[in-house]
Amino acid sequence: MNAIILDTETHDMNGVPIQISYIPCGFVDEPAGIEGEQPSKRFTFDLSSMFDELFNTGGQPIDFGAMAVHHIIEDDLVGKPNYTTFRLPASVIYVIGHNIDYDLTALLKAGVNCNHIKPICTLKLARHFYPNESSHKLGALTYRFAKDKSKAREMLKNAHDAAVDIHLTALLLQKIIVEQNIQSIEQLYELSNEASTPKYIHFGKHKGTALVNLPDDYVNWLLSKNDLDQNLRTALLNRKGNKVKA
């Protein structure tokens, strides 16, 4: 197992992990349909092998704002292992998630070594391949692409439960992989890296507009913001012809 889809829930909006869930995933050979054709690869994930555990915070209270999102209360964590005991399987290289940077930050707070990890972000991929969607939140994309909206609604009633979110992430990832004819985890990782430098603006009055088509005054206004995402800042500076190291 060198690739997993992972999600965390945290004790506050940028906190330590109190729920960690992951499932193994990967590509398997798909037999060629016609003699002489090269076999293709098919993406698979295994819900039956899910790791799903709650962790106590070592006395740190759960923020009520976070509690309202994931509905984990402190009573749920009584008798659970401390969050600092969690470790990824040694074989894991690729970690996939929706806004995976958030989850990896939570794992770092638990003392997990992530130096060797190759992150794959379905949020960045969704913004890259579906720039005109009104929302790139996992729940919104689930409804957007679901053939059965009633079934999607049932799944989303438990959204922000890490175990449910990794299933939803897996379904979104599967759609992207099929549409883009992705044949390996490494190829998926490279696409995620490419998507880390945005080509479209994903918020505000110009949402869905290619960066190269943004008005100069709007670009200058964005660049004046101290809290602007660094990847977006790099892309905007490159647009203006100021090459900087990503």
Structure, explained:
With about 250 residues, the protein is α/β, with parallel strands linked by helices. The chain folds into two domains: about 5-195, 2-Layer Sandwich (Nucleotidyltransferase, domain 5), CATH 3.30.420.10; about 200-245, no CATH class. The chain is about 35% helix and about 15% strand. It has nine helices and six strands, in the order ββββαβαβααααααα. It has helices at about 65-70, 100-110, 120-130, 140-145, 150-155, 160-180, 185-195, 215-225, 230-240; strands at about 5-10, 15-30, 40-45, 50-55, 95, 120. Strands 1, 2, 3, 4, 5 and 6 form a six-stranded mixed beta sheet that branches. Helix 3 crosses helix 6, helix 3 (about 120-130) packs across helix 7 and helix 4 (about 140-145) crosses helix 6 (about 160-180). The model has no long low-confidence stretch (mean pLDDT about 90).
